[in-house]
Amino acid sequence: MFGRSEQPGLSVLVLRDADVIAAGVRQALAEAGPEQRPGLEEAAALIEQAAAASDAELRARWVHERLAAAGHEGPADSVQAIKVLREAAPGLSLLSAVQLSKDAAAHRP
Length: 109
Hints:
The chain is an all-alpha fold. The chain contains five helices and no strands. Helix 1 packs antiparallel against helix 2 and helix 4 (79-88) packs across helix 5. The termini are far apart.
């Protein structure tokens, strides 16, 4: 191929900030009065659940959200889904879109 001896990898970065959010909720929980504790405890549990999601699950969720926003109702790994995904995220390479669609098909919401 023209100047490249290897295929590029998946160029999608998963960002996680659940640890920062969890620390803020824990701090609020430590300072909370009895009337605020139940809500903050529930919030802490939801944050822990969200933090436990794998990178593949987060990428799949992102894909399903983009497909749903575009009105796509077919399989997440179809040619049409890849086209819709690339239109929703114009900088996304074909290789990345294909890999993301496969992840999304494997991790249905």
